[in-house]
Amino acid sequence: QGGSFDVADRMFHSVKSTWESASRDNMSDVRELTPEFFYLPEFLTNANHFELGCMQDGTVLGDVQLPPWADGDPHKFIFLHRQALESDYVSAHLHQWIDLIFGHKQQGSAAVEAVNTYHPYFYGDKMDLNNIKDPLIKSTILGFISNFGQIPKQV
């Protein structure tokens, strides 16, 4: 972000508020869990005491606010996430996630039915950047891709 931290209100600061935004409140919030959620408790703490800013509501950013079941302990949070990932429930339903991300529910009518659709810019196989001549449109699309990523190829 130009050599400085992003605006405080846009930074990851709370598991609860991030979950509520991505799962319910903001249909354009396309965040995903990164591998760090399953092995690296340190990413949840501001061990170097960086000044991360203050949100509009006055909240000063520091360590990530964890859900109550983690008891404020990043190690417990990661441990329980790993247990959930390795649970029988996840093993029995992992194929459904694969269908959404890589399979038949990634595009088309199955994706619409699963509420799993995105702006056409995010589908790499639908956009041929070489054919876009307008530099403003091309840079806008590249900006979207750079900031939000692309949908993986369907298998």
Describe the protein in words:
Pfam families: Beach. One of its GO terms (biological process) is antigen processing and presentation. This is WDFY4 protein. The chain is an all-alpha fold. It has a domain of 86 residues. Helices cover 37% and strands 0% of the residues. The model has no long low-confidence stretch (mean pLDDT 90).
Question: What descriptors fit this protein?
Answer:
5 helices; 0% strand; 155 residues; single chain; WD repeat; BEACH_domain_protein; mainly alpha; 37% helix; BEACH_dom; BEACH_dom_sf
Task: Give the secondary structure arrangement, pairings included.
Layout lengths: L14 H11 L48 H12 L2 H14 L6 H6 L21 H14 L7
Protein name: WDFY4 protein
Pfam families: Beach (PF02138)
InterPro entries: BEACH_dom, BEACH_dom_sf, BEACH_domain_protein
Gross geometry: globular
How many strands, which pairing sense, and closed or not: the largest β-sheet? none
Class from secondary-structure proportions: mainly alpha
Q: Tally the helices: what do you get?
A: 5
Distance between the termini: 34 Å
Instruction: Return Rg in Å.
Output: 19 Å
Low-confidence stretches: none
* Mean pLDDT over the residues: 90
How much of the sequence lies in strands comes to under 5%
Short description:
The protein has 155 residues and is an all-alpha fold. The protein is built from 5 helices and no strands. The mean pLDDT is 90.
